[in-house]
Amino acid sequence: MRGRAVGTAPAPLSILDLATIGAGHSAGEALAATTELARSAERWGFHRFWVAEHHGMPGVASSAPAVLLAHLGAHTSTLRLGSGGVMLPNHAPLTVAEQFGLLEALHPGRIDLGLGRAPGTDQATARALRRGLADGAEDFPRQLAELTHFLDGDFPTSHPYARLVAVPRSATRPPIWLLGSSGFSAQLSARLGLPFAFAHHFSAANTVPALDLYRDNFRPSEVLSEPYALIGVNAVAAETTERALWLARSAALGMLRLRLGRPGPIPTPEEAAARTYTSAEEDFVDSWLADVVLGTPEEVVDGLEALRKRTGADELMVTSHIHGHQNRLTSYGMIAEAYGLTG
């Protein structure tokens, strides 16, 4: 493992949000909660606030990141906002260039464009989004190159799109990040000299190998002179370790239902505690919870620092997909205070 030297200042701390819809709540309530969380994150001093694209998931309201980011930008003033990410195979590159050019024009200097190559949904929904799967994840490098040319307005003169213009286009464009949960995007980020965000929160076993691939193969570029790696981390803080675990089990049950092909709103902690699990389901829940940094605020900060040292991550992005807006708000606020964020 190679990366940030042990003993340096704490890594920047950010938030990944999915506009979580809990059982008994509506999408409108979830989006209002995300708006309040973004305002709070700005006040507490989190570095950036990203939202993720998912489709066909009753527990996630962030299906259109560009729309949600425009709204969040209007309700904040300094917080960096971005997509974590836009699933590029679901969209025409010109559409993404226009959307994020517009966001940059609305909120200059505050927008990040994080891109993923997974569909963020099942294959049937992916077909409905794309009207076919001809341009899937395998075509991601070409789509990325096309998007970059649209953002920069620099297609070669021989290219069929050379005369097309993505409007609006600012003098500066949003930084492009590549997201991934395996080695593919790590190597592509390295080759292009882009910052890399790894989904440790659902692919923990691959984190260190992917980050090593990224750093070992990194080529300096106009946008980045040395590697910069961010990792997403499931984190839950509460007054006691027992309560943090109780809250986290609601997210674990939500993930279990997703794996079983029965996605729904995030269940309540009471429902998760009362459910009877098979031995295989218990194994899944225990395995998932093992990668969650949870406990009292001090325990969470210690866990985050241990993870930073182990991975060498330059930035940590915490996410909490638990039930109840107040539970999430309290958890993030506790983490911010214990981590030493100053607003």
TrEMBL record:
A Pfam family this chain is assigned to: Bac_luciferase
Classification via Gene3D superfamilies: Luciferase-like domain
Assigned keywords, A-Z: Monooxygenase, Oxidoreductase
Ranges for domain Luciferase-like: 14-314
InterPro entries, A to Z: Bact_Lucif_Oxidored, CmoO-like, Luciferase-like_dom, Luciferase-like_sf
GO cellular component, one term: cytosol
Molecular-function annotations in GO: monooxygenase activity; oxidoreductase activity, acting on paired donors, with incorporation or reduction of molecular oxygen
Protein family per UniProt: To bacterial alkanal monooxygenase alpha and beta chains.
Protein name as catalogued: FMN-linked alkanal monooxygenase
Source species of the chain: Kitasatospora griseola (Streptomyces griseolosporeus)
